[in-house]
Design a protein that fits this description.
The complex is a heterodimer of chains A (665) and B (316). Chain A is built from 23 helices and 5 strands. Chain A is mainly α and 665 residues long. The N and C termini of chain A lie far apart (63 Å).
């Protein structure tokens, strides 16, 4: 029997659900979860990645499911865009599930079997979101994704701050979902037909299209953590168990990008150029905001969460640039910037999940999340440290790893934008390119801080010296993701070839035909720009080896071990190293106006000096708290109506009835 | 199709860059000593220092990790590759296809990441202080450098450094106002990136102000030699980058050997003049307080953005 990729995808999603339900057999059994559930989930993920890869170049497949509401069956569709995001989901889920086999332990909040149920339901709902082809199915998948991840975020629900984080997450997820629902409402243009096929065929007026786009940007932006809808992200990511943070950051945020692309380029189909300016501005602001805030964080998972805001900002900026080019009919350049956007989605999925898993291993070994109590782990946890180093170089956007390849493409796309037929827009280019360059440089700063404070230096606490390294399952998960970061970085031309069907479908143009062999990446024209990470990698490795052997051959390899020198200072201890606050100080100093800083510094005569410094997001006091107070006040007004006496409520019904009768007449 | 002559020329260029780099450092030191009315060390002093360091044994802190030991080679390797990317003698070299201006900035950033991580590895107060300051300089200087190179790329319609050199050297002589802004920005960035006055001082170990020296305090023997050599290479790369973008005259085009032979004296003269100018700037300016360094670099960044704006507004 021949199984089409779409059927296979649906079957695999069902398999994930079934695996999750198996967890209910013995919810407290750690053996069941780590020996059966997660390995099986990993295999399903691998199969899904293989299916998605094979479906990349197929024409779109459609299927009507025997599920759904009466007369409103669910529609499913698998095209190259869905297949690409399914590939991210499958591949990342496989590696993260392998890691999770060794991760969940006894006595950490929710029992492991239930954890497995939520986890696999989360994976399955993400797969359904990506194949949904009507608004009902999409919203069902979307909401199950939000709910299952809510339960995962609050798995350690005994802590009040984790419950608070979960609440905030659920709140913003629902605000986003409402916006998405209204967006679909605007797209069906009064026809009452909510299948995506009908929306594709319908040509809404410019006004309705703009409304739909703005609602989509808000709704999906809330999921992607675009400023100012980012507040849940730095709270929810640290609260969740590390494999879940990895999945949320690597895949769930990408479903938001998928939604934006689907609505803008597929359902609406004719983007108007100025939408691009809005998306570009929102993306750039988020990217800079994320990078600046990541630099001052003291909790390693919060730091990575802010870095996710930064990367999603870059992705949304690329999305905006694509709209801009597409709106002016410059399809080749739209294809270039869309390629950069999708490539960055892929890269971010791998390096961010790698780093989140590494923090998971560190957290398990040390029970510390605060950067101020870590340090020196490269000695006790070499596996985690060296794989995390690959992730660090990749996320800092350095050649020859994958983060650089997509940033290179994005910068190339920006350098072409002076050809836009609009003089004011051309002035935007230097500003946009400058903020992307600044963001990239800041992410280097952030990652040196992250890696240096966690893995290098002296252990800041005595217990760190005997922290155990990651177990075999965890090592395999980390190694898989690190290998993906290296491979994706070294063969960008192949990756671009893979993205070709998507750019052809969405931007009406492909750039892979211009590729200059598989070694060189030359997206437009080799005369304009070309880049070959493989050559750079091989030659740098050669030069390093050559330098090493030459030094050994001409001189010697003698080493003597002794205490550190430190300018002759004899009483060095671990507290003299920079803390996380100290390392972030220059950024706090340079970008002072962006932060709300509370500082208390002791007087020189204080016998027990305590330094305290809290750096907060200004948007809390400027936006969220006033909003919350406003809602509070409104609900208070509602209590005026709420008398608690049945006669009063009957009066209300009677009055409403009279009013309606009056109106109907 | 493998271009053997091109590969040979490329190899010769890397070797030449690696061997010449300490000479440039020696020349700058000599000029600075003359300008400051001191008796100068010999031109070959940096080579003697390197030789001395290579012969000494490495004294390593107990808790230095393997990363600390491989970092000097990694830094040296990435900077040597950066030197290979910049078209110093010829624009037709094979590596110019493999890496463009953005990749060049990437390689410099890679070297910086490793030197900062190595600085934090032993866990001394000075090491992490130096790493933090180096990254502070880096996150402001790197985008400024990128913007300078973007301005040149917009003028020549390519981010490939060879094409930039060919375009700028061959167009009829036009003074681009944008390049004036870019030149100021580039000078400021190179001073900061090469640990020169007014941002850092390569000649002292004064704790309050040092950046580069603080990071490498724990290094000794051959590791220190590699780091010092890499620092010379970095100065060489920045000088050649500046010459390639702002004075691209005399660089051979198309890989003929005669052109390369003629380009060598041109390069040496340009480097000698550039080194003397650097020494003059260092002598005339005073060291900034470290808190003022972000302002200095912020100014450079603004100049670089202005350069691009000016290009878009006036020249496009």
């Amino acid at each position: 029997m021949h199984l089409s990729p779409l059927d296979a995808t649906l079957a695999l999603a069902a398999a994930w659900l079934a695996i999750g339900l198996c967890g209910l057999v013995a919810p407290a059994s750690i053996r069941l979860a780590s020996r059966v559930l997660f390995p099986a989930g990993a295999l399903v993920g691998l199969a899904l990645a293989a299916v998605a890869l094979s479906a990349m170049f197929d024409p779109p497949a459609v299927r009507i499911l025997p599920l759904g509401l009466p007369d409103l069956p669910f529609h499913a569709r698998l095209d190259s865009l869905s297949a690409f995001f399914l590939l991210i989901l499958g591949a990342v889920a496989a590696a993260v599930s392998v890691f999770a086999c060794g991760y969940f332990r006894r006595g950490e909040g929710t029992p492991p079997g239930l954890q497995g149920l939520y986890y696999h339901a989360f994976l399955a709902s993400m797969a359904l979101v990506l194949v949904a082809d009507d608004a009902y199915f999409f919203m069902v998948g979307w909401e199950s994704m939000a709910l299952s991840s809510f339960f995962l975020v609050t798995s350690d629900h005994r802590h009040a701050e984790i419950r608070r984080a979960g609440y905030l997450y659920l709140l913003l997820a629902h605000l986003g979902a409402i916006a998405i629902l209204m967006c679909f409402g605007a797209l069906q243009s009064g026809s009452g037909n909510y299948t995506f096929q009908a929306m594709r065929e319908m040509a809404p007026s410019a006004g309705w299209a703009t409304t739909a786009f703005m609602l989509a940007l808000i709704g999906f932006g809330a999921k992607a953590g675009i400023v100012p809808l980012h507040a849940w992200l730095p709270e929810a990511h640290p609260a969740a168990p590390s494999p879940v943070s990895a999945l949320m950051s690597a895949v769930m945020l990408k479903t938001a990008v998928y939604g934006m692309l689907r609505v803008t380029f597929d359902l609406i189909g004719f983007p108007i150029w100025w939408w691009g300016v809005v998306a570009l501005a929102a993306g750039l602001v988020s990217a800079l905001f994320g990078a600046i805030y990541a630099a001052v964080q003291t909790d390693m998972k919060r730091l990575l969460a802010y870095s996710s805001i930064e990367n999603l900002g870059l992705i949304v900026a690329g999305f905006g640039l694509t709209i801009l080019f597409r709106g002016f009919g410059m399809n080749a350049l739209a294809a270039l910037s869309l390629t950069a956007t999708l490539y960055h989605c892929l890269n971010h999925a791998f390096f961010k999940s790698l780093l989140f898993l590494a923090t998971g291993s560190v957290l398990h070994a040390t029970r510390e999340r605060s950067l101020g109590r870590l340090g020196g782990l490269i000695h006790s946890m070499p596996w985690v440290a060296w794989t995390a180093l690959i992730g660090t170089v990749a996320i800092a956007g350095l050649p020859p790893l994958n983060g650089f390849a997509s940033e290179w493409l994005l910068l190339q796309a920006f350098l072409f934008s002076p050809t836009l037929p609009h003089s004011y827009l051309n002035m935007l280019v230097p500003i946009a390119a400058a903020s992307i360059a600044l963001t990239a440089a800041l992410s280097g700063y952030v990652m040196v801080k992250f890696y240096g404070v966690v893995f290098l230096g002296q252990p800041r606490e005595a217990k760190l010296a005997d922290a155990h390294d990651a177990g075999p399952w965890e090592r395999v998960g980390l190694l898989l993701l690190a290998a993906a970061c290296v491979v994706l970085g070294l063969v960008p031309a192949t990756v671009i070839g893979m993205l070709d069907p998507i750019t052809r479908a969405l931007a009406g143009h492909g750039i892979a035909s211009l590729a200059h062999g598989w070694v060189f990446l030359a997206p437009i024209d080799p005369q304009r720009a070309s880049y070959s990470p493989l050559l750079i990698f091989v030659l740098t490795a050669l030069l390093v080896a050559l330098a090493w052997f030459t030094v050994r051959a001409f001189y010697h390899g003698r080493v003597r071990r002794t205490g550190p020198w430190d300018c002759g200072f004899p009483r060095l201890d671990a507290r003299m190293q920079d803390t996380a606050e100290g390392f972030g100080q220059p950024v706090r100093h340079v970008f002072e106006p962006f932060f709300r800083v509370e500082q208390s510094v002791p007087t020189p005569f204080d016998a027990r000096p305590r330094y305290r410094e809290v750096v907060e997001d200004r948007l809390w006091s400027w936006l969220y708290l006033p909003l919350a107070r406003g809602v509070d006040r409104l609900t208070f007004l509602v209590t005026v109506l709420q008398r608690g006496r049945i006669s009063v409520y009957l009066m209300y019904s009677f009055g409403t009835l009279l009013l309606l009768l009056f109106l109907v007449q | 199709m493998i271009d053997l002559a091109g590969i040979a020329a490329q190899f010769a260029e890397v070797v030449l860059a690696v061997l010449l780099a300490p000479l440039l450092t020696g020349w700058v030191n000599q000029c600075r000593a003359w300008l400051q009315n001191k008796s100068a060390p010999g031109l070959l002093q940096p080579y003697r220092t390197l030789n001395k360091l290579f012969q000494k044994e490495v004294v390593l802190a107990h808790n230095a990790s393997p990363l600390f030991r491989i970092a000097p080679y990694l830094i040296f390797g990435s900077l040597a590759l950066a030197a290979a990317i910049v078209p110093t003698l010829d624009t037709g070299l094979p590596l110019n296809q493999a890496a463009d201006a953005i990749a060049l900035v990437g390689m410099l950033a890679l070297a910086r990441l490793f030197i900062a991580l190595a600085g934090m590895d032993v866990g001394t107060a000075f090491g992490s202080l130096g790493a933090r300051r180096e990254m502070m300089v880096g996150f402001l200087a790197e985008p400024a450098l990128l913007m300078v190179l973007f301005t040149a790329s917009l003028i020549s319609g390519s981010t490939s450094l060879s094409t930039i050199v060919e375009t700028l050297a061959h167009k009829e002589f036009v003074i681009y106002p944008s390049m004036a802004f870019a030149g100021v920005a580039f000078t400021m960035v190179s001073l900061a990136e090469n640990a020169r006055i007014p941002v850092d001082n390569p000649a002292t170990h004064l704790e309050l102000t040092m950046i580069h020296e603080a990071m490498v305090l724990e290094y000794s023997g051959r590791h220190l030699a590699m780091i010092e050599w890499a620092a010379s290479l970095k100065l060489f790369v920045y000088s050649c980058m500046g010459l390639a973008v702002f004075f691209p005259f005399g660089v051979a085009q198309g890989g003929d050997w005669l052109g390369i032979v003629l380009a060598l004296p041109a390069l040496l003269v340009k480097l000698a003049l550039g080194g003397a100018a650097l020494a003059l700037i260092e002598t005339l300016s005073a060291k900034l307080r470290i808190f003022r360094a972000p302002e200095f670099l912020g100014t450079a960044f603004v100049f670089a953005v202005l350069a691009m704006l000016v290009h878009v507004l006036l020249e496009a």
